[in-house]
Design a protein that fits this description.
Layout (H helix, E strand, L loop, with lengths): L2 H8 L6 H9 L1 H25 L4 H27 L12 H6 L8 H24 L5 H29 L4 H16 L1 E2 L8 E2 L3
Parallel strand pairs: 1-2
Length: about 200
């Protein structure tokens, strides 16, 4: 099983075709929000590094992840510049906040939940890059395909750290967030973002 097949099995649902349609009709918003997502992914990794300073494996993996996400951020900005798309403020999708509201407050539960959520965000990004690529122009399709390997590894890093630090099976918690994630992806959404749900405006 390759990484993409593993990710599809990990996720409870595929991206709705209506979201693909919305993405193709809103490519400027797709790029702007994608840039925001890469920046936020780097920030999330850095926040984990500052909060959990005693976990060497986490520090090493999150440091590498943050660097890669910032490189992706720069790459998206370059593509936007070539296409005269202006990088600007944008309200975030409900997606990440919709999962984070279920994070436990005591440790190590809090860390485990944040790592599991990180795995779902990276897995969904990977799935969307793969699903979008066949419909995009050559430059953007090539770029999105190039991200699959690193995003797939990020998903594995997050999930592996969660399993290592839990000290017990995490299947139940993964299943819980799997259902939360599915609902966010399949539920009607009145705005388009990289991680938005099924659009209501098509």
């Amino acid at each position: 099983m390759d990484a993409l097949d593993e990710i599809k099995e990990f996720l409870a649902c595929e991206t709705p075709d209506s979201w693909i349609q919305a993405a193709l009709q809103n490519q400027d918003i797709l790029l702007i929000d994608h840039a925001h997502c890469e920046k936020k992914a780097a920030s999330t990794a850095m926040n984990l590094m500052f909060r959990y300073v005693d976990r060497l494996d986490l520090l090493n993996k999150m440091s590498r992840l943050a660097r890669e996400e910032l490189i992706h951020f720069e790459q998206v900005l370059a593509i936007m510049q070539d296409r005269d798309v202006v990088y600007d403020h944008m309200s975030p999708a409900r997606y990440a906040a919709g999962m984070r509201k279920h994070v436990r407050t005591s440790e190590p539960g809090r860390l485990i939940d944040l790592l599991i959520i990180g795995a779902f965000i990276e897995a969904r990004s990977c799935e969307r890059f793969a699903k979008l690529a066949p419909f995009l122009d050559e430059e953007l399709a090539k770029f999105y395909r190039s991200l699959l390997k690193s995003e797939g590894r990020h998903y594995q890093d997050y999930l592996g750290l969660a399993a290592d630090y839990a000290g017990e099976p995490i299947d139940e918690r993964v299943a819980f967030f799997c259902e939360v994630e599915r609902e966010l992806i399949e539920a009607p959404d009145d705005e388009f973002r990289f991680h938005s749900g099924a659009p209501t405006f098509i």
